[in-house]
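Entry 14. Ran structure prediction on the chain below.
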Amino acid sequence: MSESLGMVPQSALAIAVAAPVGGIYDYLAGPAVGAVRGNIVMVPFGGRHLPGIVMGTAIGDVPVAKLRAVETLVTLPPLSDALVQFIERVAAWTMAPLGAVVKMVLSQPAAFDRPPQQKRYSIGAPAGAARLTTARQHVLDYLAKNEAPDHQADAFGVTAAMITAACGASQAVINGMETAGLLQVKFVSADQPPALPRHDLDHVTLTSDQQQAAVHLCGAVGQGFQTCLLDGVTGSGKTEVYFEAVEAAIAA
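Output, structure tokens:
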């Protein structure tokens, strides 16, 4: 089992390549100068380009002149030393090639790529007076109600598709508003977490029986485990009733 290391030498690294082969291979550090144990890299392997894990310093059993260089240091945090040791132990315990276990861990190379960028819009600040047509006003009204708060990381505005679906505005209208400064544009990662629940949207008007059941369910929120039976025929609005309790639980 390889020794746990901090900063590895700059000349060469020992890499466990994600291929069903045993052993660790030496590579010149190249762009991975300063890499640490657990860093993920892309390396040439035969005629392929494969991910691998930095295991430590080079073994030194191949002359430096014959070594190939690491191609890319993946811009992700290094795997924890506990995980790297686990990979080594799984390979040893199952008598599997180390590279086969590494391949299972690094089975989605697309996860190493930069997420695609998405164009999003929010309300802008035009330098001068901009013409406001009915279509443009509908877009601004929609954005005023729906654009994401600035404090949410990478949550900025809405997409053109969302604007079109909500307002019926064409891409030409959106482009014109962008040119006029009515819309501010930012490119953000398309890989976004789900939007937070919103409590300021219009609610369905409940019947008196539904309201009575909703009050009972909401009153049970935060009171520990309880069993409640919501009895009603199909289409009677049971879902809308327990949504009130769900909202109360989220807001608690």
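The two ends are 49 Å apart (CA to CA). Will compare against last week's run tomorrow.
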